[in-house]
Each structure stands twice: as C-alpha cells, then as structure tokens.
Amino acid sequence: MVHVVVVLFILVTQVSAYRPCPKCGKIKVPYPLSTDENCGDPRYRINCNNGALEFMSASGFYYKILSINPKANKLIIKPPLIQENTCYSSDLDQGGLMLDENLPFNISTRNTVMLFNCSDNILLSPLNCSSSSFCREFEEVGEGCGCKGTLCCHFLKDSSMTSHRIRARLGGCTAYTCVVDKQPDEPLESWNFGIELQWLPPF
Ligand SMILES: *[C@@H]1O[C@H](CO)[C@@H](O)[C@H](O)[C@H]1NC(C)=O
Ligand SMILES: *[C@@H]1O[C@H](CO)[C@@H](O)[C@H](O)[C@H]1NC(C)=O
Ligand SMILES: *[C@@H]1O[C@H](CO)[C@@H](O)[C@H](O)[C@H]1NC(C)=O
C-alpha cells in the first residue's frame, strides 16, 4: 500500500513538472513545445537552430516554423522550396510532408494545397485541376516558374483526407505549395503561404 502511494506521488509530481522552454533566439517557445529534453513536453519536440525554430517531419526533413499560436494549439511551417528552374519540392526525396502518426500533431483543415507537375492519373481524385485553379496564379511568380505549363491542381485539405501527409513523388505530383485560410478572390500578393499544423493539448 505504501508503495502504491509512493509511486502515485512520483507520477503526480512528474506530470505536474510544467517547465516551458527558454526562448529560441528572440522567439518564445510556448508550453508544451519542447526544444530540449529538460523542458516542455518531450512528445512536442521541435528544433531550435541558430535562433530559428524548425519542425521535424517523420522522415527527418526540417521545416522552418513561421509562427505559433499557443492559444489555438497551432503553428505554421514554411512550405518546402521549389528548386529554381525545376518543379521539384525540396522534400520530394522524402515523399513530401509526412507527420509521425504517433505524435500529437496533425495538418489542420485550413490549408489549401496546390500540386504541380502531376501525372494524368491524379485527375481521378477530387481535385480542382481546371484552368481557373489557383495553382495557375502561382506558376506565374518566381518560385512557381519552373512548374509553368505542367498539370497542376488545388484542393482544400479538409477532414475527409489524411491529416498526416502531403504527398509529393515522381510519377505523382513533384512539387507543392500551401496557403493558410485562402480566401476566394484574394490576390496572390496577400496569400498566407504556410502549412498550418495543430497539436492535441497535453491534458
Ligand atoms: C476550380 O477553382 C476555381 C477557383 O476557385 C473556381 O472558379 C472553379 O469553379 C473551380 N472548378 C471546379 C471544377 O471546381
Ligand atoms: C515532372 O515530373 C516528371 C516525373 O513525374 C519528371 O521527370 C520531370 O522532370 C518533372 N518536370 C519538371 C519541370 O520538373
Ligand atoms: C487533428 O487533431 C485535432 C486535435 O489537435 C483533432 O481535434 C482532430 O480531430 C484531428 N484531425 C484528424 C483528421 O485526425
């Protein structure tokens, strides 16, 4: 009985050891996000690299964290670069963005994903690949230029789809970008480029 009480006491004190992480450069690291095993909650691991925060995918690719909204349990990561004069996302070798399903993060339902250089068979899925798709606007600007003239599509990543990956692959679509909370008639200059992730609160 005494043992049980002691074990319970240890469990309770460990769970309540609530220690936010120090700033990463000038950026606050809100609890439960964790840049170090001694602070935050270790399941919410992110990376502090020279004053910049990064999110690591299941395949080990690092995405820059652009903003964090601790009240909404959300953060926005930078979509991978599309390499100049190509239509390849820099995470193509990793198969695109992949989140570890055992971790408490998923892709929110506010992301409009645009896929580029897709093969014909992608047309079978519920995507908008018409000549009026938003993706056509992106092909006209700097980063999307290498994708000009390829088959491109957009879709809202809603709850009917997997919330743990955005796929990029040879023979599928080789590049993608993403806009958070895209409004129908918003001009490209005000698109909020990013991929919004949300996390399950610790308790
Ligand atoms: C595709 O998206 C554009 C831009 O939102 C829209 O005007 C068009 O009606 C959509 N087409 C289809 C087939 O859903
Ligand atoms: C488009 O994808 C194919 C493979 O699916 C690849 O061979 C080709 O180089 C890509 N095009 C561009 C412009 O990157
Ligand atoms: C993603 O996570 C949130 C909580 O963080 C949860 O409410 C939501 O149902 C999850 N979405 C999916 C599709 O699993």
From TrEMBL:
<feature type="signal peptide">
    <location>
        <begin position="1"/>
        <end position="17"/>
    </location>
</feature>
<feature type="domain" description="Wall-associated receptor kinase galacturonan-binding">
    <location>
        <begin position="21"/>
        <end position="77"/>
    </location>
</feature>
<dbReference type="GO" id="GO:0016020">
    <property type="term" value="C:membrane"/>
</dbReference>
<dbReference type="Pfam" id="PF13947">
    <property type="entry name" value="GUB_WAK_bind"/>
</dbReference>
<keyword id="KW-0472">Membrane</keyword>
<dbReference type="InterPro" id="IPR025287">
    <property type="entry name" value="WAK_GUB"/>
</dbReference>
<keyword id="KW-0732">Signal</keyword>
<protein>
    <recommendedName>
        <fullName>Wall-associated receptor kinase galacturonan-binding domain-containing protein</fullName>
    </recommendedName>
</protein>
<keyword id="KW-0812">Transmembrane</keyword>
<keyword id="KW-1133">Transmembrane helix</keyword>
<dbReference type="GO" id="GO:0030247">
    <property type="term" value="F:polysaccharide binding"/>
</dbReference>
